[in-house]
Queue: 2 jobs
Job 1
Amino acid sequence: AVVSTQSTGNELASRAREDPNVVIAKMDATSNSVPRPFESRGFPTIYFVPKGNSVRPIKFEGSRTIEGLTEFMQSNTKEELVFVEPEEKYLKKKEEGEEEQDTGTCSGAPVDAGAGDGQCSAGKQEL
């Protein structure tokens, strides 16, 4: 089954809700200017910005699964990130054979180019 990037982003935000140093943000690049140094050439474009003043965003190009995203984030930071079990509403199982399609916009990206106008920062809440 195809899993929507938005549902993966919501689950990631839920899993990161207890780590005060993790912010999961999304931005619709079709409605907002993409700030530098971020680039959006496809949807969704996912970035990780490690803690620190001089750190540049790292473009994510791996498996768009919870495991792929959390491993990518942890491997690109010196901090020990805290991920917990997601809230029950993110554990809904899809009916057999049902596929959830991505909407084709970056509004569902877990860690989009998330700075500047139009930023939707969910923090530890639902995206």
Job 2
Amino acid sequence: MASHIKSLYRPVSCGLARLSSHNVVLTANRFTPPAFPTVANGLLSRRRNNGDGGRVGLATSCANLSPLADKYKTQKEKEDDDNKKKSGKKKMVYQALGVGVLVGAVLGYQNSQANKNKQIANESNVKEYLLAEKPPEFKVARSITSDNDRSGLKVTLFQYQTCPFCCKARAFLDYFGVNYDVIEVNSVLRTQMKWSKYKKVPVVVIEYKDKILQINDSSVIVSALFSKLADPDSNLEQIMDCYPTIRFVEADGTEKADIQNRYFLMYNEAKVNRTKEDIVEERRWRRWADDTLVHTLSPNVYRTPTEALETFQWFDQAGNWPNLFSVWERYLVIYVGALAMWLIGKRLKKRHGIKDDARESLYDSCNHWMKGLKKKGTPYMGGANPNLADLAVFGVLSAIEGCEAFSDARKHTNIGSWFDRMKEAVGKRRGQLDL
């Protein structure tokens, strides 16, 4: 021990002190004599108190010489310090997410118990899309109105602002000028969906004649409402009969439900001047948007806990959550949602065969769409104007418009030019289009 201390603090000629561990000479002008014994005494004191751990004590004391000591750290020591700082930040993120999950689980359970007997949807042995009564009143996030609304329907959309399927439904409603109210659903507590047996979003509730209809699934919402708009004289209730829900049990005992014909349009062909090939191609791309494109999003925007948290913080702004939810609800959604989607994103990556570098899968999907558009030789897949396939792909991608993943996609593919055209078309059209 004595030899170690002697080599670290030893008076030398010309008023210099030598720190042999760094082989650096400090001048008296830079390092004043009064401070030196104090530091040295601290080093000696720590050395004695720490016993075999003395070297740790010495290193800790040397760190207290900042900023002078920092100047003489080796590159490895600086890298170690940086790694400790990064590790500390990650630890804080994990702790915050963990607390959020615990609080969310308790509150979610309490809410589910309080509301489990308040569902108003009809039983499966009758028409499921017919509601026995109106859903409860909730705060309307915003009302979208257009002078070109020809539907004659009172529409309410239950949604998450940045859900790709909800974005797809909104793109359709906006483009065709349908007036609707937006109810923003708390994605963790789901308070606004307690009344419904169907818990996913988007859900559209429509007041039609003397009936209340609930349409589930974004693709069914688009197909059913387009069919109604294409043939205004048609009966929406009869249209909904064409999209039955089939329930079945898989080999592992899991109960599943599937909505039939979700990509099919139910109208008199004489009402719309379209070829069979055009309708089939549109249907194929709509299915691709749901089966392939959408699954590249989560692994890209939730790659790490930090990126997931940043994504939900953007959702907070895009969804106007400060004006819709209380402070505790917002932070619950942000932190619980970020952790949940980070875990789900990793699972989805494996399930859907996403490449190790998730960005490559996103780029591949963007390039696949643009290749099809180039082959078509028109501004949109629908020709001179967007069709339902354009709206589906645009809606899905608009969900990540404010994320780093989409910025990277714009840089590495040509998707940006088509996306900007679509954004302008949806914003300006507002139903001013003959079907």
